[in-house]
Amino acid sequence: MPYVGPAERTAVEADALREPGCPACRVLRAAEERYWFFFLHEGFQEPDAVAAVRRSVGYCRRHEAQLAARRDAFALAVLSHAAVVGALERLARGAPRLRRGGADGVGRDCPVCAELARTERGALDRLLAGLADGRLAAAYEASDGVCFDHVRAAPGTPRAGAARLRRDARARLERQRMELDELIGTFDYRAAGAAPEQARAWRRALAALRGDPGAVGVPPAP
What we know:
Distance between the termini: 30 Å
Low-confidence stretches: 1-10, 215-222
Shape: globular
Radius of gyration: 21 Å
């Protein structure tokens, strides 16, 4: 199988927290890059890798687009062949059922998403542990914080770390709500127009909700 790296190598540490945006999302972006690098150089011809693509009938739309963008014709031919064979196998077993809401079944077991889900869990576990024992408290305080999607995906233990994530998310979203209230007020004809920084409030709000989680084929925790 392609090498992605153990969770501890991609955990949210103080250096990642110093970068802009959700640190957990940054871990996933780096993990995706590593996945494709090692997969396309070493892994895509391995029988287990081909079998995984066959079983999933290809990748989710996000990771299919990432693979296509790398323009490796041989890899694209091998992996597309595996996906087509998988589709034929499903048809041979009977008409595949669509999930409610549309044709989103193909690639819903995306191999890249499965790897990212494991990386995500490891990163969030390390972050919560670092917040609970204080090792990452100062770096987290100075960071942009974890996006709402990753607060929701984070486990409930250690309790001190999970509580810190929720408190931080609540405070950040309250700030975003107030900024958006002010921005909406500028659209009143009696008000002055929004300043450039104020006009970008909606971008900050969307980033606070979800940065770039990446593991789009894996449903978030309830």
